[in-house]
Inverse folding.
């Protein structure tokens, strides 16, 4: 495989628009020399503020797997913002509220408390004091989260929580609007993506292994992924798209190790080059 850093590339036919992204990192076998990049190297790089690694991208691209690994290697906190939208979606689902019904969702928010706790370094999301981390990974909650996240009032509430977390600690945060909106001053910005078919295949394998297919075929899952992409990227409030200054990493043909190496390599390079350098 060839290392490729390319400007403004479309990501090879993905349904997501990459035209405004500056750099695109596909297929890598290198990064070995960067694999030892540790937090101390980041800390010694002259960056005196908090480290904030922002990772956006569509469902199933591998963001959370990559972010968790980065968090482990750099000993920084992983913030999974999708879990927060899922918690609010779960509440609407439990209350029998249509997640698209703004007139019912907005009043629901007043009495809703979403908070985050870390137990042995693992994020737990609390909904009104209840740990719902194990209840939010169903396809139904995915749907509720995707629909409810189009409501600006929902986003406002959660963005405050996300920014507060990044103010007090070093974070690697993943989501849809982290680079452009939640942490526009993030020290490192990435857009992790993959072809819809590849993402659907990963989900299919995951669900099959967990016995969660519930009769769905690969094509059903591909349809769900494409529907979510469409909703997440065409909504008015903070649509999913690569930020101008994000580095795009296409994981279609990459394993986790290579993708992590790419994030570390680019982050490390940004920190050690003069401030106005371009990769
Ligand atoms: O990353 P995830 O699949 O757990 O996210 C669930 C939904 O939440 C996703 O369909 C879009 C929404 N979301 C968002 O709008 N903004 C974020 N920062 C994170 C997730």
């Amino acid at each position: 495989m060839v290392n490729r850093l390319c400007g403004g590339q479309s990501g090879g036919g993905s349904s997501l628009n990459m035209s405004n992204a500056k750099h695109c990192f596909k297929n890598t076998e290198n990064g070995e020399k960067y694999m030892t990049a540790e937090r101390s190297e980041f800390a010694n790089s002259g960056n005196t503020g908090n480290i904030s690694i922002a990772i956006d991208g569509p469902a199933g691209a591998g963001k959370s797997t990559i972010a968790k690994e980065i968090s482990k290697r750099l000993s920084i906190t992983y913030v999974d913002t999708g879990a927060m939208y899922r918690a609010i979606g779960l509440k609407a689902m439990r209350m029998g509220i249509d997640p698209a019904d703004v007139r019912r969702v907005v009043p629901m928010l007043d009495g809703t408390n979403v908070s985050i706790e870390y137990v042995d370094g693992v994020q737990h999301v609390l909904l009104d004091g209840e740990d719902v981390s194990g209840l939010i990974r169903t396809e139904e909650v995915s749907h509720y989260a995707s629909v409810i996240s189009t409501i600006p009032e929902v986003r406002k509430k959660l963005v405050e929580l996300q920014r507060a977390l990044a103010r007090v600690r070093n974070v690697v945060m993943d989501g849809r609007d982290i680079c452009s909106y939640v942490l526009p001053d993030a020290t490192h910005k990435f857009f992790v993506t993959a072809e819809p078919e590849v993402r659907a295949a990963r989900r299919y394998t995951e669900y099959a292994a967990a016995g969660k297919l519930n009769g769905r075929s690969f094509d059903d899952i591909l349809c769900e992924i494409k529907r979510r992409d469409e909703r997440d990227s065409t909504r008015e409030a903070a649509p999913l798209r690569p930020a101008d200054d994000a580095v795009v990493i296409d994981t279609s043909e990459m394993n986790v190790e290579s993708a992590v190496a790419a994030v570390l390599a680019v982050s490390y390079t940004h920190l050690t080059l003069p401030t106005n350098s371009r990769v």
Q: What stands out?
A: The pocket of 2'-deoxycytidine-5'-monophosphate is lined by residues 59, 81-82, 85-86, 145-146, 149, 175-178, 228, 232 (CB under 6 Å).
